[in-house]
Amino acid sequence: MESLQSEDPKLPRSSAGPPHSSNLFLLQGPREEILYLPCIYRNTGILKPDYLATVDVDPKSPTYCQVIHRLPMPNLRDELHHSGWNACSSCFDDASKKRNFLILPSLISSRIYVVDVGTNPRAPKIHKMVEPIELYWKCGLANPHTSHCLGSGQIMISCMGDPSGNGKGGFVLLDGETFEVIGNWEHQGEAVPFGYDFWYQPRHNVMISTEWGAPKALVNGFNPAHVQEGLYGSALNIWDWTTHKKLQRLDLGEEGAIPLEVRFLHDPSAAEGYVGCALNSTVFRFYKTAEGDWAAEKVISIPSKKVEGWMLPEMPSLITDILISLDDRYLYFSNWLHGDIRQYDITDRRNPRLVGQVFLGGSIVRDGPIRVLEDPENQQQPRPCIIKGKRIPGSPQMLQLSLDGRRLYVTTSLYSGWDKQFYPDMIREGSVMMQIDVDTVDGGLTLNEDFLVDFGKEPDGPVLAHELRYPGGDCTSDIWL
């Protein structure tokens, strides 16, 4: 994929892609041509390294819907997960910065890979490895998750644990040129009990981080007893962006247990956003109050379904990934257990309105072993999702929206330990990538039945594909100042 056009049409296009001055300018960028996805072999029974796949998504290309390059990591059992950039729109005014390295933290091994995607975007190569011991010794942290570049040129990565597998929400800083570990972003002794995702908003001098759970609890699957034992989080942590001081801990209570992806509105002047809370399937709106502190309110709740044939008598939808369109009009999220993706109009920020829904597999398909006994939403059990003759294993999970908001890309793997527990068929058959056509005028989601990337057909065997990234930036990686 060529990079996004500079705002001055007379300037040449950079192969790596410069950052951009506003979310509305990025909205007008060219159509995506390739995507990067980490592919995971941990917990599949195949002893091969994880790799970064490059997928052709250009309908005019002869290799459309195909993996056109695979970059294997040099180690086993890393569990690649999320990724970020060495530069994004937070450093727009620095002409020396180019978005030419992809940062790939490993959730389980705690290793960080720096991948050169600028030299040849269609065939990335490893530029540097940061070994786990660097995180352990210099920061007392492990299990890196979300990576964001900073306006300073540094790279910041949230971590979920300490080297022993206990919960610990701290942040590692990398030098943006050498990619060496500098140290912790937070002050000594101010790490929070759990870590996961984060997003910052400099105009309001704030960063908000979320909480998954202690790595030792979630490493091999989900045990509901661990929630009662206090091994999973339920709070938003509010930080002063300038001083790095901890300001508030917003406990969302039982309804907000396991808050995962956090998304501010893209408008840098907006003092509000949304967080998806997995365990009880809620979305909270967080916002700055008139007094200058922060608060949160529940604005969406997906009811559990009474079932038989499952591990518990009630099945939550398990909201996992969420994102907001670049124009801040629509909110999307996936229900990884129920099997649907939902689109909400958030023009009225406090009252999201459901305008689109599509089922793409999941645990409650009508010909499966689980029977829904009672559904508060009165929805019929969905038919299995079949694309190009293939029955889709697993359920929609990671999301990425095209810059113009018209195409929603979806993968089905959450995390290998939980995939193995809840969707063993996906472990055997591999995950998939699908595409949803989006009505950006009135709202609405429609499955594109001509698009399928089947990661069950990879050369070394079925693999689990996770988060999606475009070379030129997207609505889940760019932050504007």
Automatic annotation (TrEMBL):
<dbReference type="GO" id="GO:0015031">
    <property type="term" value="P:protein transport"/>
</dbReference>
<feature type="region of interest" description="Disordered">
    <location>
        <begin position="1"/>
        <end position="24"/>
    </location>
</feature>
<keyword id="KW-0560">Oxidoreductase</keyword>
<dbReference type="GO" id="GO:0008430">
    <property type="term" value="F:selenium binding"/>
</dbReference>
<dbReference type="GO" id="GO:0018549">
    <property type="term" value="F:methanethiol oxidase activity"/>
</dbReference>
<comment type="pathway">
    <text>Organosulfur degradation.</text>
</comment>
<protein>
    <recommendedName>
        <fullName>Methanethiol oxidase</fullName>
        <ecNumber>1.8.3.4</ecNumber>
    </recommendedName>
</protein>
<keyword id="KW-0007">Acetylation</keyword>
<keyword id="KW-0472">Membrane</keyword>
<dbReference type="InterPro" id="IPR015943">
    <property type="entry name" value="WD40/YVTN_repeat-like_dom_sf"/>
</dbReference>
<keyword id="KW-0813">Transport</keyword>
<dbReference type="GO" id="GO:0016020">
    <property type="term" value="C:membrane"/>
</dbReference>
<dbReference type="GO" id="GO:0005634">
    <property type="term" value="C:nucleus"/>
</dbReference>
<dbReference type="InterPro" id="IPR008826">
    <property type="entry name" value="Se-bd"/>
</dbReference>
<comment type="similarity">
    <text>Belongs to the selenium-binding protein family.</text>
</comment>
<keyword id="KW-0653">Protein transport</keyword>
<keyword id="KW-0711">Selenium</keyword>
<comment type="function">
    <text>Catalyzes the oxidation of methanethiol, an organosulfur compound known to be produced in substantial amounts by gut bacteria. Selenium-binding protein which may be involved in the sensing of reactive xenobiotics in the cytoplasm. May be involved in intra-Golgi protein transport.</text>
</comment>
<dbReference type="GO" id="GO:0005829">
    <property type="term" value="C:cytosol"/>
</dbReference>
<dbReference type="Pfam" id="PF05694">
    <property type="entry name" value="SBP56"/>
</dbReference>
<keyword id="KW-0539">Nucleus</keyword>
<keyword id="KW-0963">Cytoplasm</keyword>
